[in-house]
Write a structure and sequence with these properties.
alpha+beta, 14 strands, Jelly Rolls, three-stranded antiparallel sheet, globular, 327 residues
Length: 327
Amino acid sequence: MAAVAPLLLDRVFDDPAAIEDLLVRHAPYWNQVRYTPAGTRAAAATMPAGHPFALEGGAPPLFRGDWLQWPQQVDGVTELVEAPVLLDGARRLFDGASAAPTFLYVNLTAPMPQVDAGHVDVPSFRGLTRPATPGWLLLAMHRSGLFERWAVRTATAVVWFYEGLGGQLRYWPDGPAGPSALADPVPNTAIVGDNDNMFHRVEAIGDPELWRAVPRTSELHHAGGDRWEIRDGDTTVATYRFDQLRVSLSWKAAVALDDAEVRRLRWEADVAVAGTSDRLALEQAVRTLIEALSERGHWDGRPATVEDPAFVEAVMATWPRAVPPVS
């Protein structure tokens, strides 16, 4: 599926300085390698194409916090979640009638090399989203084209708070075979894109002398003042000034094209509504994939679960991940 052209926003928040206070309040932050269970084929499948969940000697120093997973959110982020500039950008991206925030993540990355070939984000479907569904499965479902009826049209805004070396966002607006473009991480600016379909990656960050792998179990803690520490249990792995960390917010919103779609999305989101729902269930998604695999001769028709390594292998082989050419 082709992505729509992204939008660049010059000024996002009225008080960007408040972000640092929120970062301190909601520390510590977990390493993004948490998305991938260790030592299994499913772990490799879970990784979006080329995503930097592997670095020689350990995990990349890439940390995350969940500030909104609709309908739950942490204290103090309402103004970020409901930022008019982001809502307007999401609507304009798809020429939509309405945008409803669904996720807000904060990403803090210490100096590290560029190790990501380029990836797309994990998509959402009505009834199935990342908090309760393996990321590898959602990505494969999207690539299969079998679940468009339930796909949630999602706008993603990446908002930067970084003035150090590197850290640009490279993206492929015309698809992975086309030319790439670079967006500089200018503080309090953003790019709004169809990141479920538009390949993108973060370039190398910071002083190469500071690049290092960290334990997959490590966390990023505030250590007072402008100091931050990567800790693995009681061991301090590395210490950084705040200005050495690339900080970005990843804000997502579901976009409806017309009033009828707004009503349907609202109805689907209301878990209290009685009666038959058009929400997609995990068992239904697995059955649909099994039927498609069997028709292609890639499966013997037997039932499977998302923990079945043979099922994972069959799905990934049938709908393989794409990566952009080397840039």
